[in-house]
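Please go through the sequence line and token line underneath and see whether the fold suits the sequence. See right below:
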Amino acid sequence: MRYRYLPLRRRKKEVTHNEALTLLDALVHAVVEAGPIAVPPATPVEGQCWIADAAPTGAWAGQAHSITLWTSGGWRFVAPREGMQVMRLTDNVRLRHSGGIWVAPATIDTPDGGSTIDSEARSAISTLILHLAAQGLLISG
């Protein structure tokens, strides 16, 4: 009698390997749909990620501040590390994990006021702010 242990083992390795590649892809590209949010989305698409908030519910219960990933095998959770960064698609803001929470960059207003107006300096500062905001380093106000 011939047993089929080898093909089953090989298939399990492939599943484990594919799950690892899915997690790696999610973390290397570091893009989340939205977050931090408490309730898992009702109809996630495979490969989409979110950030769980401080008190997540449902399938995310106990996974505070985690990066959550929907895979063919269900939800996967990655605990963030200090300094980890992700891009949030809802507003194109780069969030950074700092002090145990996800934080957005500071908002900087365009310069105005003052008794002497230097239009060239204001223009240069405004352009600098726009470029920094485009790189996700600032939020222009």
